[in-house]
């Protein structure tokens, strides 16, 4: 069974799952302006499908344009269309109109399968008339330490992209209430988002890090923190923290408590709760680290089992597509 995994942007999730299910990963990237980019990438995508003749095409959403292309051409080109939908693929909330939300629902309804990271997103897909499969991110393989070091006694690495769903201002306020033994190191491009003059001395902005230095920071930290106000979002920083056996400070959501159920402290998106969570995790940091190691093993075993189930699902769907009565 020939499978192609298409993405119009580089993301770790794509390579992890594509490799595990034996799909050819096609990362098509263009720096053209928006319309020219869509025309170029769309042409390249359809050209590859035509030449490789896959039985299964997986498209990442976002891009919603890529997902629309994959679903729209599945019948005439004779393949099973699968969408790997991130949270913003299910809920394109940044749209100023309801057009993208309606299109998202249509894609869920007409794709042969929509892969999501948790059962709450799967429920939304099924409520919209679609067929869902739950597969969280694969734990990444950690790069070795490279000499990049964080300095301090109690070192928290706050993984941040300064997006609207990240309560970074609350984190900065929380840092001001910590004693001098704590340091919160912050990743991500902060320029234009942060007034450095108003930050507590407990905060160190690292800016954008190379991949090697990013993994060095993860290894060097005592605790990893990644927060979001999205209710059903499993953040990438949690997976990365687990891969290097670091205790986690995460948002207090139902999906975090269910999936990351060991070695974590859960906090509300408010400065006092964040400050209390940081203090609490250091009170039992060695025990929390042991729990993270147990969680790591459990998640790896669970992911392998789910991946095998996904392969069986894809084979079943592709067999129906090849059947003379299909379509």
Strand and helix map with partners:
Elements: E1 3-7, H1 12-21, E2 24-27, H2 34-52, E3 56-61, H3 64-72, H4 74-77, E4 80-85, H5 87-90, H6 99-110, E5 113-116, H7 119-127, E6 132-134, E7 154-158, H8 168-175, E8 182-187, E9 203-207, H9 211-220, E10 223-226, H10 236-243, E11 248-251, H11 254-259, E12 264-267, H12 271-283, H13 285-322
Parallel strand pairs: 1-2, 1-3, 3-4, 4-5, 5-6, 7-8, 7-10, 8-9, 10-11, 11-12
Helix pairs in contact: 3-6, 8-12
Outline the structure in words.
The chain is an alpha/beta fold. Helices cover 46% and strands 17% of the residues. The protein has two domains: 3-135, Rossmann fold, CATH 3.40.50; 154-298, Rossmann fold, CATH 3.40.50. Strands 2-1-3-4-5-6 form a six-stranded parallel sheet, sandwiched between helices. The chain has a six-stranded parallel sheet with strand order 9-8-7-10-11-12, with helices on both faces. Strand 11 (248-251), helix 11 and strand 12 (264-267) form a beta-alpha-beta unit. The two termini are 19 Å apart.
């Amino acid at each position: 069974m020939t499978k192609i995994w298409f993405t119009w942007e580089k993301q770790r999730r794509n390579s992890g799952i594509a490799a595990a299910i034996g799909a050819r990963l096609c990362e098509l990237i263009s720096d053209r302006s928006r319309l020219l980019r869509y025309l170029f990438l769309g042409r390249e995508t359809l050209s590859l499908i035509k030449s490789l003749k896959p039985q299964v095409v997986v498209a990442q959403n976002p891009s919603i344009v890529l997902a629309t292309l994959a679903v729209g051409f599945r019948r005439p080109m004779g393949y099973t269309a699968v969408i790997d939908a991130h949270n913003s693929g299910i809920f394109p909330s940044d749209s100023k109109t309801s057009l993208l939300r309606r299109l998202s629902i249509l894609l869920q309804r007409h794709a042969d399968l929509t892969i999501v990271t948790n059962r709450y997103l799967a429920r939304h897909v099924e409520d919209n008339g679609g067929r869902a499969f739950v597969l969280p991110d694969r734990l990444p393989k950690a790069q070795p330490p490279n000499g990049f070091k964080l300095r301090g006694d109690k070192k928290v690495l706050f993984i941040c992209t300064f997006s609207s769903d990240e309560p970074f201002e609350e984190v900065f306020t929380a840092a001001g209430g910590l004693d001098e033994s704590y340091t919160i190191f912050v990743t991500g491009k902060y320029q234009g988002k942060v007034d450095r003059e108003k930050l507590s001395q407990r905060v160190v902005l690292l800016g954008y890090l190379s991949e090697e230095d990013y993994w060095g920071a993860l290894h060097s930290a005592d605790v990893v923190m990644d927060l979001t106000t999205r209710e059903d979002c499993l953040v990438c920083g949690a997976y990365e923290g687990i891969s290097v056996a670091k205790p986690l400070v995460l948002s207090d959501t139902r999906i975090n408590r269910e999936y990351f159920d060991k070695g974590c402290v859960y906090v509300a998106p408010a400065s006092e709760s964040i400050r209390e969570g940081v203090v609490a995790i250091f009170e039992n940091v060695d025990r929390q680290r042991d729990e993270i190691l147990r969680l790591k093993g459990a998640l790896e075993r669970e992911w392998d089992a789910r991946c095998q189930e996904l392969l069986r699902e894809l084979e079943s769907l592709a067999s129906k597509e090849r059947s003379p009565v299909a379509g």
